[in-house]
What we know:
The structure holds two protein chains of two kinds.
Chain A: H1 6-17, E1 29-41, E2 44-56, E3 60-66, E4 70-81, E5 84-99, E6 105-119, E7 123-127, E8 139-150, E9 158-163, E10 169-175, E11 181-189, E12 192-193, E13 197-201, E14 208-212, E15 220-227, H2 235-239, E16 246-252, E17 259-266, E18 272-275, E19 281-287
Chain B: H1 5-15, H2 21-33, H3 35-54, H4 70-95, E1 108-111
Helix pairs in contact in B: 1-2, 1-3, 2-3
Amino acid sequence: MRRFxxxxxxxxxxxxxxxxxxxxxxxxxxxxxxxxxxxxxIGVRQVLAAGHVSGPIETGxxxxxxxxxxxxxxxxxxxSESDTVTLAAEFFAKRRLATSRRGLPLWxxxxxxxxxQLEWGDTARVYPLGPPRPDAAESLxxxxxxxxxxxxxxxxxxxxxxxxxxxxxxxxxAVVRPRRAVVGLGVVRGRSIGPPRRxxxxxDGANRQISLPHPSGMPLVLELGLxxxxxxxxxxxxxxxxxxxxxxxxxxxxxxxxPLGVVCGRLNNVSRRIPLPxxxxxxxxxxxxxxx
Amino acid sequence: MDVxxxxxxxxxxxxxxxxxxxEQTALARHLAACPHCAGARASSLExxxxxxxxxxxxxxxxxxxxATPRRSVALWAGVALLIGAAVGWGxxxxxxxPGGAVEDGRAAIFVR
Lengths: 292, 112
């Protein structure tokens, strides 16, 4: 039987806050992560990248740092009680260890959790490769400032990143599990396309019966259900919540238990097709709801 | 199969001091009645005497075994250690070693 480790506990904490568990009652705040990736040597200090990620209060920050010899990916999240905030991070790290006898790189892989308690506006200094030794000539760290501000109802996540020069690849991503999703649907028969319609659905909510205009003129009645995908199969997928913005649409005929089709995708407006009986095709797109 | 083969093995074992009293008694009875085996025992003894003389110990009770000089042992042990160290160093250079403690390379967060 698999043991429940400290890393699992951290993952549970980080993932639990993503759906907005502790902040569900306070959507009026907007969370911001200000990030600066800094490399410092003797008498030299260089900002390799700077940016910020903001979004609803349950927003997580996915930070990736990659070089030829090391990769550190982390999912940061916060949960708060009163004025203090706990910054939780799940790390997934890979280091190039050596070269195999066939000349291929050998990598060492690790995943673990870190927690630190701070106040809103404090700076957390993250040493992604471990704290520097006292005699180290160079060190790399990430300054992370977590703050919140009144949101005015704005719900969409936002990301900005400015990169400096350096051998390090830096990626910042906002990680938000959607509370709602806009599903665009249209029916295609041959070269005829019915007028598309948009539906505001709640993941894991109740099924909804809809009527779609059909090119033949007869409306097409379907039942829609929106679910979240199964947890990722790899440890990295689960640790970094790579499926956070994926939803799955289940389409069935009314009063039928067998679905006509299930299609999953990110909220990125890319069309996905579900073949329907009778030669029709249902074209579906998923998108974030508009800002309220 | 030669009927004397077993007795010849017994003769060798006796000269090496490996026979029990019962086996020695049986061999003595056989030698008293078998001139072939008695002659073989005498030949074996003569060969051992020759080997002892060649080793410079004509009055030895058993055939002296060639002794390995201590200096040679020390020399070969040193060579083996040097080869092992060189191979270990090369392997570490090529494939790396276990490294430091796991926590040394893990991320750390401090509040400033």
